[in-house]
Amino acid sequence: MADVQLEHITKRYEDVTAVDDMNLEIEDGEFVTFVGPSGCGKSTTMETIAGLTLPTEGTIRIGDREVTNLPPKDRGVSMVFQNIALFPHMDVYDNISFGLRLRKYDQAEIDRRVENAAEVVQLEGMMDRMPDEMSGGQRQRVAIARAIVRNPDVFLMDEPLANLDAKLRVHMRTELQRLHKQLDTTIIYVTHDQAEAMTMSDRIAVINAGQLQQIDPPLVCYNEPDNLFVAGFIGSPSMNFIEGEVTESGFTSDHVDIDFDVGAHEAAVGEEVTLGVRPEDVYIADSDATIEDRSGRFPAYTDVIEPMGNEIFVYLKLDEEGEVRLDEQADDQVLMSVDPDIAIDEEHRIDVVFDRSKLHLFETASGEAISHGFD
Amino acid sequence: MSTNETDAAENLKQYGDEEEPELDRGPVEQWAANAIKNPDRAYKAMFYTATVFFLVTTLFPFYWLLMVALTSRGNLQNIVFTPGSFDPTLLAEGDVFMGTNPMAFVEVFMTVPFHRYIFNSFAIAAVTTVIVIVVASLAGYVFGRLKFRFKGPLMLLVLIVSFFPPAAFFIPLNQLFNTPVDVMRPILADGTLYNTPYAMLIPFSALFMPLSIFILTTFYAQIPDGLEDAARVEGTTRVGALFRVIAPLSAPGVATAGVLTFIAVYNEYFFSSLMTDGREHNWAPLVEGILRYQGQHEVLFNLMAAASIVGVIPVALLVVVAQEKIVSGLTSGALKE
Questions:
Q1: In this structure, are B265 and B188 located in the same domain?
Q2: CA distance A149 to A175
Q3: Interface list for chain A against chain B, based on CB atoms closer than 8 Å
Q4: How many CB atoms lie within 10 A of CB B63?
Q5: Same domain, yes or no, for B221 and B125?
Q6: A277-295 per-position pLDDT tens digit
Q7: Given this model, what pLDDT does residue A49 score?
Q8: B236 to A87: CB separation less than 8 angstroms, yes or no
Q9: How distant is the Cα of B226 from the closest Cα of chain A, in angstroms?
């Protein structure tokens, strides 16, 4: 068990910068998830921690050792790969014990540890199966057993559930959480699936274009995103953005005006800003839902309706005529999520309100958050 | 067979039955007519014809060798399809060999220390194969799995070595190996490599290396990066991952490269005969041994034939053992590149 520190990690390839000045401190026993779109550098960051890729600049510490240039085998890390990467020519026992055998543990100790690891991932009685005789979920368990059997300081998981089917993925998700509680090891987990990130992590590191955007507990990332990217990336369906500017009385745009005390929110009059509102914070004005802090009413037309069962997604057009325009501006359209028992039709004129305490304001140019919630 | 199919088959039969009696065909015509109606028969016939043709042309020399080996010295001109002195009636008189001479296979070892020649060829081939596989694995790893500048030109350079006729290397190498080097005197009697196994190991390793590098490069390039990464995180070095994970998973390729090298070196005569003086304790190869049955006054053809058959046995065994892997290796290599 150990903490992990990345200082100014940069990885440049000939023409691209995959990781750009990454600074991270991951505490002992913490479950941190790197999340971001494909190609954002999250896997490369993990590979530099594992030692499979050497960073161009920066230092990496695991515990009190600097490991920046150590080979992977000497770092005290173990890793679960996206494509599972079991050795196809070895049976389950040989796969799990591979690292121990390389380190010349004695046979009794190897047997004991393999047995323990197999018990943790519920693989008893499969020791002499070959990987190609097992299902995807079983293979993934073997890969996890292979990683935990060495009692690593840090446990790295690179999209370990990506190749499993949806049902198994949800199941393995809870198993991984249980495993983390049981082992109490530092876990670094890479995924592009924000549901995995939200449910499992102690903290989420949101990465985009090689840069760390925010590292915070999942709900902080959700409720108080540091910038537009985090706001748009965390949460599904994603946050609605409405572009406008700051006036003396508050926020104004083509269709939406929100009054707030400009002086109290570090916003300058005339500044181009973006208002963010999550679909669940948009309400039908006449519904009896309890809203903490109602905004004014905005006229809207319902466009497409997507019933999900537990909720309904309604695409709203804020245009006053409600005409369908092909060159739609982003702030013409807002997604609302409502209770499934509310009767609502397509192509109808309704009034909507926002919950002012859940609104977010960002600087349009830099994307930086100005304020979360107006009072 | 379903009812429909049975019906169809019966219809066809009836159809055939109706047509046949109207024509008066000879047997060849009949067979041709059947072949047209049922081309599978024709294909099968072609398959057997081709198979028999290839079997006869490849195996006939061995058959003839066996016949020569089994004929006693005076009867060599009497071989037709049986050994020269073959006479089944002798069985009744208590000669279980029916006039043939299987003792030639024993005489082979009594006349000349032929086992030593086999051992020489076998040992040189085995050591060369090990050297080639180990070095070519490292090269194959580099060419197949790493990215670096000038990879293409370097690979071409390696392959160019195999374009030269081996004879082109002979004179400079012979000069080199006959030059006494003082520092080697404690290990080698006269300080030269002439008459030592090294005089053959070194050029053979170099000559057969490019093909093996090429074969292993194509195989090693196929192994997913994830497996190598997993091995390295689990505790191997890059070289450890190569020999513990990548090479075992490329077993067909390694077997192909190994067997091709082994057979080529085992059968080699040109270099080996010129790098040794032809005596068994000086690491002369198999073929030198066979030539020893050729004396000044007579040529023991039957022993030469017997020796040839004995010499083939080790390679035949090796190929049978490795056959499955070699076949899949040769074909998959062909498909992959």
A1: yes
A2: 17
A3: 50-52, 71-73, 77-79, 81-89, 98-99, 102-103, 146, 150, 156
A4: 11
A5: yes
A6: 999 888 888 777 777 777 7
A7: 92
A8: no
A9: 6
